[in-house]
Amino acid sequence: MIEYPDADRLMAGELGEWLDGQRTTRRLAIEKSNNRIFNIAIVLLPLLGVLWVFGFSPFDIPIFVWVVAGGLAWAWTQKPKFDAKKQVKSGINEAIAKSLGLEYCHDCEGSEAFEQSRAFHMLPSHDRSSFEDMWSGHAGPHPFLLHEAHLEERRGSGKNQRWVTVFRGAILSIGFEERFHGTTLLAPDGHFSKFFGGAKDTIKVEGTILDRAQMVSPEFEDRYDVYSTDQTEARWMMHPEYIERLLSMESAFGGRDSSVLFTGGTMVMAINGGDMFESGSLDHHEDGHLVSETIRQFAQLADAALALNRIRSDQVRTPATRL
């Protein structure tokens, strides 16, 4: 297993010193945001008064104009706070990544794991995507990559057009010591449905035909439909400990409706949860707790992934234990 950094030790070293230096930056960001709110007020209130004198009522302006204008104004006032929190978050996560022998990048592009997730229909259809918080390198001896993805779909038309979040969560990829003989996809229950209901018996993705595997765990059956090109290999994935580890990885993100792909020598997981590793705060008193929480989240996820690797290796070396 990986030796994870101690939060107190990090805070007592260079990271703690750097965060102390960010106190002024955060205080100035709060002041700047408050000043922007005040500036908008002293401009807007007299303007509304003048319009009222000349017979124009604020109620004559369409609601959507007020909504758009208000949203833009609020975003402008809060930008200094956002930038300060991002700077603190990046500093904390970079320090944690360095202690783990990983690289961290706040602003990032998509990844091969994301493209695989999309190709195997592990993600909902979307019209735009954004990515952040990429951790990359090796977890123990295994190639490891993790980043967050935010996918949105455009709905409505004209004045009613809006962007709706269809996925916000994590894309995880980890290399396995033992390669997989086939391709196995764990999809959320009912993800591939027949026209009149019920799960499809066969699906075709990326030119590959995958047949539905029979389940052996009632708990797992309520969560996933399993499709594979290798039914024997798919069955050992239903091992109770394997199921427990997969569900714990999903739980680490507070996730739901996750999808998992095993192919070649890699596992790819798309977890529809929420933001993780949000270690940036404007309150310096929260720094220690946020460092500790970020380490805990990462450790829970990485340990589960490494345990899956170990179980896979044990199954390959002792094939008689397969279910």
Written overview of the protein:
This protein has 323 residues and is α+β, with helices and mostly antiparallel strands. The protein has one domain. Helix content is 46%, strand content 24%. It contains eight helices and ten strands. The protein has helices at residues 7-12, 14-53, 63-100, 112-119, 218-223, 231-236, 240-252, 287-317; strands at residues 103-107, 128-139, 142-155, 162-175, 184-188, 202-205, 208-212, 224-228, 256-263, 266-272. Strands 1-2-3-4-10-9-5-8-7-6 form a ten-stranded antiparallel beta sheet, sandwiched between helices. It is flat, with a radius of gyration of 24 Å. The model has no long low-confidence stretch (mean pLDDT 85). This is DUF3137 domain-containing protein. The chain crosses the membrane at residues 37-55, 61-77.
What is the averaged pLDDT score?
85
Query: Gyration radius, to the nearest Å?
Result: 24 Å
Number of helices: 8
Give the strand order, joined by hyphens, for the main sheet: 1-2-3-4-10-9-5-8-7-6
Largest sheet: 10 strands, antiparallel
How far apart are the first and last residues' alpha carbons, in Å? 26 Å
**Unreliable segments of 5+ consecutive residues:** none
Number of strands: 10
Percent helix range? 40-55%
Overall geometry = flat
| Helix-strand sequence | HHHEHEEEEEEHEHHEEH
Structural class: alpha+beta
Strand proportion = 15-25%
Give the key terms:
323 residues; alpha+beta; 10-stranded antiparallel β-sheet
Overview in brief:
The protein is α+β, with helices and mostly antiparallel strands and 323 residues long.
Question: What is the element layout, followed by pairings?
Answer:
Blueprint: H1 7-12, H2 14-53, H3 63-100, E1 103-107, H4 112-119, E2 128-139, E3 142-155, E4 162-175, E5 184-188, E6 202-205, E7 208-212, H5 218-223, E8 224-228, H6 231-236, H7 240-252, E9 256-263, E10 266-272, H8 287-317
Antiparallel strand pairs: 1-2, 2-3, 3-4, 4-10, 5-8, 5-9, 6-7, 7-8, 9-10
Helix pairs in contact: 2-3, 7-8
